[in-house]
Each structure stands twice: as C-alpha cells, then as structure tokens.
Amino acid sequence: MLVDAGPWLPVPPAGYGGIETVVATLVPELRRLGVRVVLAAVGGSALEADGRVTTLPHGQLERVTAPYNRSSGVAHAHMQAVVAALRADPSIDLVHDHLEVVGPAVLAAMGEAAPPVLQTLHWDLRKHREFYETFDGRGRVFFAGVSDSQVERAPLNLRRQVLASVPLAVPPPLPLPAPRRSGEPYALVLARVTRDKGQDLAARACRRAGRRLVLAGPVAGVDDPAELARRLADPADPLQGDPDAAYWREEVAPLVDGDRVRWVGGVAGEEKERLLQGADALLTPVRWAEPGATGVVEALVRGVPVVATPLGVLPSLVEDGVNGFLADDEEGLAAALRRVGSLDPARVRASADRWTPEAMARSYLALYRRVLALAGPRREDLTASSR
C-alpha cells in the first residue's frame, strides 16, 4: 500500500506536526503487522518504509495559510508525484491518504487506474462544504474520521462515505535521565500558534491563576524565535501577510514577557519530551471544534492532566476531575489550573490506555480490508496503458 503524508512537513516532523506524527506512529505498526508500505512524503522524511516517493524537496508548512494564488500549486505538485508513482507500480493495492481535499479529488479522478483509497479526515469538516457536499467516491474512495464528534459535524453526503472513526495514537514517551519535574510548575500549550488554538486565552488564564506558561509550536511555519523576529521586522517579507503571523504580533506577543509567559518556538525530540514531562498541565483552550488532538493524547500518556475548552473531540478525551478539567472561558480555565494538583498522575496515565499505536494500526487494517472488499482491485490494464 501507499501512505500519502501530504506536502507540509517531513515524517516524522522535526517539531510541530499533528498529521505527520500520526503517520510516523502508524507506519511502523503496520509494517510490524506485515503490511508493505510505500511512503509518499517530502524531502527530509526519515521514517523507515518499504518504498519511498519524495514529492517535494522539503516541507511547505510556511505556505499552508498563504493566499490561494500563492499556495494552490503545492498540494497539486505533491499529488502529481503520487499519481506518477501509482502508475509506475501496479503492485500498490491501496492508498491511505492524508491530504485535505486535493488527495481524494485527484485519486478519484484517476478512476480505476488508481487503487482503492481510504482517506483519514484530520480537520474540521465544516470547511470545504462545496467539496464535501458533492464529492462522490464512486465506491472507490472512502473516508475515516479521527473522532465521532468530528464526523457528526460533516455534511450528510460525506458522512455516507465515512466507514468509521479511528482515534489517534501517539508514540510512547522517551526515557529521560533527569527528574520529571523541577522548579516552579508551569502549564504548556503544544500547538501551532494560530487563533483557533487560543494561545492568547491561555496566557490570560495563566496570569489569572498565577501560573507560568510555556508556548511551544511554530508561528506561520517558523520554529525559531530569532528568525521570526527578523522576518517580521522586514516589511518586504511574505510573512507580513500571513494571518497566523498577524495573530502572533497583535494578540499573543504583547502577552509574552519571557518570564511568566515564554514562547520557545517549535520543539521536537528530547526538548519536547522535557517540556511535556515537566509540565503540570497541558492547556488546550481551543476556539474551534478540535477533531483529533494528538497533543492531548501525548500529555495523557505521560500522566500530565489536560485543561481544555469543551469543543470537538475534547469532551471524549478529557474526563472532568479524572484526567483533567473542561472549562468554557478564561475564568474557568484559570480555576481549573489551580486544581490540577489534586489529580492522580497514575489515573491520568491509565485513562489513555485505549489509544495505543497497535490499536490504531489494527483498526486501520480492518478498514483496509473493508475498502478492498467494497471497491475491488485496481485495473492493472488501465494502469499499464496510462504509462
């Protein structure tokens, strides 16, 4: 099978990367269970696979929020390489796609020259209604959600083509030699800096609660604070028109003092692990219906409680008073932060037992078999004639 990770970040990602983290968690488990996996991803991807399609030289996350006339070619260039790989290799019997809208549209247009397709929907399904209200997979392209709450918000036409929801899983924690927590407690926000993720709300809630806050995640695809400052000081830099950069500059940066509230940029590996294991709470004050929330699962498997707004999948992940707290507003989030010390880390950790990489992989294996049974094999004669 071919797993399409999309054009935005390498797999595994060097820092932030929700979809890419899911792919990096899933592929090794699939291979362990005997699946041959060809990975389609950008340059810099180091994940082991049985075959590789390098679609673009490097990740394009910086352009994901650019105006359509500056970004539309990215996804299509990526899919052009995917299509070429599928035409060249008739032994690929299934595609597991993770590229929003463009992935299923292009693969469906290939008709029976493409293998059957399962796409995982990682995003808010209230977007792109024109596509989802009319798209017809014609019995060859099917979908999986990442949560039931996400799929419930989808247009009826899309819901009819969703086979199931598969909860997200994350890799196990990295072992660290140092103690888990030291110094004054802090809350952590681990997310791309964008208004939907609520970093400004987090900063104000922590100020109310008298709690330190660490913000970790890129701004408009930029991981390094020094680089961001340099680029925002250049009036000719394309970053000036980016909505996430504007959110940072106008609503978040004024709250960051380098002491009580810090932004550390994008993090990965041991640095990310230390931040997670050192936090006394993960703060997730989202303003949108979060579909999957890998960061929440990462915290829970480490015994770190989660304080979140009750939107999207979060009420199904956060059990109030057991592994975290849910609150609707800034005052409620601040009150919850004051109570996280009452929660038992062992109970928090135990609440995440059902979200293992093996469970996710086995759920997808069942869906792959169902897709193949529903769609039938690809037409190798059409594949050969298109080369």
UniProtKB/TrEMBL annotation:
Matches recorded under Pfam families: Glyco_transf_4 (PF13439), Glycos_transf_1 (PF00534)
Gene3D superfamilies: Glycogen Phosphorylase B (3.40.50.2000)
Residues in Glycosyl transferase family domain copies: 181-349
Keyword Kinase appears in the UniProt entry: no
InterPro entries: Glyco_trans_1 (IPR001296), Glyco_trans_4-like_N (IPR028098)
Annotated Glycosyltransferase subfamily 4-like N-terminal domain residues: 16-132
Molecular function as annotated in GO: glycosyltransferase activity
Keyword field: Glycosyltransferase, Transferase
Name of the protein in question: Glycosyltransferase
Origin organism lineage: Bacteria, Bacillati, Actinomycetota, Actinomycetes, Motilibacterales
